């Protein structure tokens, strides 16, 4: 009996990992449908070493630089590896988007060619892929050293999340599917994958998933309501307006913005649901005879403590990229009531407060479900043990 119990526990632990590995491989080879974008047909991409630069056509106007920089580059890979050609770096007067190359720099270039003839070389940006890979590998190693098997599962769930967004969510939005329905389904699927990797196929997983789903649903409904009430257009999202001028004028940017609200807060919602479920499970394991009401109250108490920090986490996550804008407001002496009324500030308020509503709602619901499900499991086990004892005593 003991060996059977161990094998069942191992199956609960490893089956989700195997299924997620299959899902990961499937997503990895799945095409997005946009690999052959017209803009990159007939081109080759590779790294190139900058041999020399010519800045004669660059015009300096204070901090702003415009014009064109010409670079002699040597291709380090691709179809024309080893060849030298002239590359062009166009400056548009934007410190945010422009880049300046120096001799010896490594750049990512796009080569426009016809047969064996190089037509033009576009200097995309400094080459960072190798350094990004080093950073990612270092993080993977560090996480596995610290967290062991749990860290490896976290990496797998992270990879699946990235692929789900890139291979499923983004193409579905571009194809015109309803952003809210698609966002809800994909986010819920990601939550199920991540939590089952943590808990396996267990009642703890059911509790955490149900709590996360409720919090996400609350965030979704409130996001839709207040986006309409605040008269926020989806073009408030960075670079979203350019989609309308790129042949996707039928996209509903406002619904995409609504979906981004609950997608952005789903990580914090899931984190809180897992924290409460784990806390209740620990209480039940230490005190098997605890009632489900007492276990739920313990979950409530854990949720209250976590909510205070998680809401601040959302605020910092959403507002971290707006520090420069806040500095501009202060430097110009903009009144606070003007600031709060701007649509991009109102959009941040919606994301922060509506996301916090989801966090607050996930706490009590997860406490109730985990208290009921986890104590029920213990009670069933206790009942089985009592039945076995009675059978043994009657036999004797």
UniProtKB/TrEMBL annotation:
Name under which the protein is recorded: Membrane protein
Bilayer-spanning residue ranges: 14-34, 129-147, 154-174, 180-201, 213-236, 256-277, 314-333, 353-374
Source organism of the structure: Anaeromicropila herbilytica
Lineage, uppermost ranks: Bacteria, Bacillati, Bacillota, Clostridia, Lachnospirales
This protein's UniProt keywords: Membrane, Transmembrane, Transmembrane helix
The keyword Acyltransferase appears for this protein: no
PANTHER family with a match to the protein in the record: MEMBRANE PROTEIN, MEMBRANE PROTEIN-RELATED
